[in-house]
Amino acid sequence: MKELKLMKGNEAVAEAAIRAGADAYFGYPITPQSEVLEYLMMEKPHERTGMVVLQAESEVAAINMVYGGAACGRKVITSSSSPGISLKQEGLTYIAGAELPCLVVNVVRGGPGLGTIQPAQSDYFQAVKGGGHGDYHLLVLAPQSVQEMSDFVGLGFDLAFRYRNPVMILTDGAIGQMMEKVWLDEQKPRMTEFPSWATTGKSADRERNIITSLELDSAKQEKFNLKLQAKYRKMEEEEVRYEKIGCEDADYLLVAYGTSARICQKSVQIARSKGIKVGLLRPITLFPFPKKPLFELAGRVRGMLAVEMSAGQMVEDVRLAVNGKVIVEHYGRMGGIIPSPDEIVDALEKLIKKGE
Amino acid sequence: MTEEIIIAGFGGQGVLSMGKILAYSGIMQDQEVSWMPSYGPEMRGGTANVTVILSDERISSPIINKFDTAIILNQQSMDKFEDSVKPGGIMVYDGNGITRHPERKDISIYRVDAAEEAVNMESARIFNMIVLGGYLKVKPVVKLENIIKGLKESLPERHHALIPLNEKAVKRGMEIVRMVQEV
Predict the structure, then answer these.
(1) Complex-level ipTM
(2) What are the DSSP E strand ranges found in chain A?
């Protein structure tokens, strides 16, 4: 039976990892996501399911432990916040290059550098465009609530194993620190059988499995690159997730994910009470990005406003998606400042004026 | 029904836990709830605030800039949030340490001298529950029985012996809250 709790987003991720049957969590504390590790340490999942929880000596160590665990075909998860996620990029590109599944949670804070500990969405480029070197993508999920923080852990593991690809949950300090009602999934057992590619010890009747991201023969490496690209195209075909709110009769469209999407839902209510017909498209997967629904809406609305807690990153993907069909503006706050519902409505009214 | 509340004061006054108890009580009566704290390098003596929303519907934004109710527990919070109460909304404040009292004419204002009462009741720790009682007398958004249920859910078992004292504090707050102005 599902269980109802009042939890922080960070705690929901931790509890969901245990319930999803994760084999291990490796991490290193950083605000505003330290509750993930704290909750796991307090909850002692090694007594509940046998799950390993380990505080590594650094983020770099943690992601390489994830690499190792994933190579053995285990369900492994790590979490951090922006500066720590930057440290993990080398490990992530190796994991992508070795085609291994894992789950990485980024509870974003404002940057660059150490920046601030307050929430931001300024790691969008890093999350969806690669992050490390080489032609690769993470599959990126953007929860907007504590419920989705919980739900996307199970979903993230499923997608990671389906595509043999690292999956990132891209969230921020606001959702990490906020408490909401959450229906927790039932406890799933940990896996007892492992994928055929996993390095679980070679038996006499099969070839050995080699996990590596190295290929010195360029022809073979290009072939591998094409295979990766085919995988990303398949994700774009099959895994796009988004939510439309009030789009049926909309003259204008807000586009926002995560915390910004929540605030925009209030802005939609305020704007509609003023007689402005506005809708919201909320990308749930950031890679693959919901290009098609945006392109379709571009033919019906007079303007789009991308709202992000950044200088304007996702707005580039919105513009690529609509391909000049309609005006796309950006409204954002930075440095840990969260926009208010009212100021988004003001920005929308400016866009409307500009169009007239 | 949707009630959007800001609770603001010093760290250590029990601001965040008061919000948490409200949120738990909301759950006990099948409402949607959100609890959004200010977080950061905050500590005892610094400022702390939390936005709590209780609603019969899905909550859109947990982050808002206008509130139905502001519960104000120090001067800094008064200065910061007095203007954020919606016209016709409510402010409940503790007069202790307040040098500039609220000046808005378009909101209802109530005063609950909880710090003083906590001294009378010989327990500084129940300060926030006295405030909560004052607020609930003015606006009974959650039932007392659900507060008690919420306390049982949110407090570890070893603190359950303190629940009667907390209940007493809530009731005392309901008695001592007084109207400053009503609109």
Answers:
(1) 0.92
(2) 3-8, 24-27, 52-55, 76-80, 102-108, 139-141, 166-172, 179-184, 242-245, 252-255, 278-283, 285-287, 303-308, 327-332
